[in-house]
Amino acid sequence: xxxxxxxxVEDIPKNQLTGALRRGSVKKHVAAIHVSGxxxxxxxxxxxxxxLNAYDTLITNQVHMIDARTLCLMIxxxxxxxxxxxxxxxxxxxxxxxxxxxxxxxQQEWGVSSLLSYAKLKGGVCEYAYSPxxxxxxxxxKVFALINLNIQRKFTSGHAxxxxxxxxxxxxxxxxGWWPLDLFRRLMGVDGSDYYAVYKHLNAKIIKxxxxxxxxxxxxxxxxEIRKRGRAVTDIRFKITxxxxxxILDLDDGAGVRRSDVYEKLQGLGVSDRLARQWIAEHxxxxxxxxxxxxxxxxxxKNPVGYLSAALREDYAAENAVVPVSSERAKVLAVVRDLVxxxxxxxxxxxxxxxxxxxxxxxxxxxxxxxxxxxxxxxxSIKAFWAELEPEAFEGV
Length: 397
Hints:
With 397 residues, the chain is of the alpha+beta class.
């Protein structure tokens, strides 16, 4: 799941803890939420995107919505393949999440809930909800941290993504701790299999391939260790270190971001910690700094945070730049402007994030960061992207 990064109590500021959790002698993890591993790769990615979409209103809103076509594209579905989306949503509603943790008073709490309490598709919109109890757990920053969607998109194996999620939440402690093999099989979704009851098969077909993909694809490195009773393997744990090649992709560790001048300027404008880190992660420090300067140059701005949000979303400064535009490109840009304007803020954020994840060339990525949907270097890709969302929009262009 998107926010499975349980932290050691020692890592959490004291002012975030209450009750018995404030005692320095408490050395255990605040929480551990296990989700049945019997999810397909697409279902697992779907659950992460839905959680990310709902996160800011998990407690305040009982129902969450996202554009179905955007959702399909973010997960890697064909945007018109509603049958696959329906099957995946059904799978999430049938999947059990189980937690066993300390509450605010230091008492042990066990609970179980379906991953989604319901989901429905209507009018091109996916509507869904979490049970109140699970929503509370998912919203707790001491329990979960965001998993970068750009990282999860690279995974090709459901077992590898499951291993990553279950290891990533322990990245600050450096180890998962010992898991009985039965629990590990359940997390990987292979419990009940006679074949994988044999450790040799489990290691060859599940553990080794999953470890290889996590280390190659993600922002962490994992190394398995086993414990035996006699000759039989009984437990497994994973040592975890940051991947120095990909650690920059981790959006969740805000320590470095909070030391930047741009973050300080955002805080000075009244931008929240979470939103400031999100903007810096999505747009880059230089781009955000440019938009701060742009907003600062405007007269009579009564709501600088709202204006800055719009400037980042719509790339106001870029619209003022003088860029030679061919007549054909001008028509494409006009269509794109209309399509973007018709989207909700949530949809716009999702569209931008998805398109950014698809740009491989550094120069093209930098141009999109500067100019958004008006990017000259990405005109062809931008047209193709929106044509997949709205096939009839570019007829005659």
